[in-house]
Amino acid sequence: MPVREVVLIGDPRLRQVALAVDLAKHDWRPDAIDLADTLADLKGRLGFGRGLAGPQIGSPWRLIAFECRLGSFVAVNPHITWRSEEAFSVLDDCFSIPGRKVPVMRSRSVTLQCLDLDGQARVFERLEPDLAELVQHEVDHLDGILMVDRTVSEGGRGGVDR
Q1: Which positions in this protein are listed as binding Fe cation (predicted)?
Q2: Which residues are the active-site residues?
């Protein structure tokens, strides 16, 4: 499948709430493959990249490609089912906002539930802070939220989705 261009800030597709995937249909599958291929290409060319959400390639579907300690896979209809009360400030960056890092508040740990491309349920419980931050960033993309929407002063409070 083709590698796609990353959609950049200012494009209204980044502000759309992504649509739930209906596993009985197959209209979302090409986007899932393109998403994984695009993330692999970015990581290969740039040397970094742990996740990429559907809207970042112009896809309307609730899909996230991961290449990190969680594995290399596409999460279908991912959602956070638990968030720790404890939060922390992290400098966030994003392929859709190149060259910019902003401080955001994130829950220190989260639990992620999703399906894989075969429709099998996957659960990642009480993730460590670096993975929790990644998951929250990518799920935000599916809800039309960008890191700049969660910007806080260094060490400040605010911006955590509760």
Answers
A1: 94, 137, 141
A2: 138
Decide the pairing of beta strands 87-93 and 121-124: unpaired
Domains of the chain with CATH codes: 12-150 (3.90.45.10)
114 is in an annotated binding site: no
Nearest to 85 by CA among 150, 149, 162, 137: 162
Instruction: Write the burial class of residue 161 (CB in 10 Å: 0-12 exposed, 13-18 middle, 19+ buried).
Output: middle
* pLDDT one digit per residue (tens) for the chain, 162 residues: 689 999 999 999 999 999 999 999 999 999 999 999 999 999 999 999 999 999 999 999 999 999 999 999 999 999 999 999 999 999 999 999 999 999 999 999 999 999 999 999 999 999 999 999 999 999 999 999 999 999 997 545 544 544
Question: What is d(CA 52, CA 19) in angstroms, rounded to the nearest whole number?
Answer: 16
**Alpha helix ranges (H) inside 14-161:** 29-46, 129-142
Q: What is the pTM of this model?
A: 0.93
Amino acid making up residue 88: F
